[in-house]
Amino acid sequence: MNGLIPEAYAQAGAASPGGQLAPLLMMVLFIVIFYFLLIRPQQKKAKEHAAMLGKLAAGDEVVTAGGIVGKVVAVGDGFVTIEIAESVQIKVQKFQVSSLVPKGTLKGG
After folding, report:
1. What's the predicted TM-score (pTM) here?
2. What is the structure's pLDDT at 16?
3. Is 7 part of any domain?
């Protein structure tokens, strides 16, 4: 067994510098692709969501992550009170508000 290892190295010859650099370049290429296709769009979406939550005000019509549609009655630091029917209000965590819908959507549906 030991006799085969030196023969394998001898047959391969000296490794060229370009051969050692290719795997490194492939790794860098994969990291760049991951950044532009996965990481960057998620960061952008998170920033947009945070900005939307910062602008949230009473009277806005919203959809929660659970699919509940309602009108914002009150906005606190960590919670939002949403009216989902006449005289029916629920309190949800602020980050659970997934999107704003155009005003008048509730009456049209």
Report:
1. 0.69
2. 57
3. no
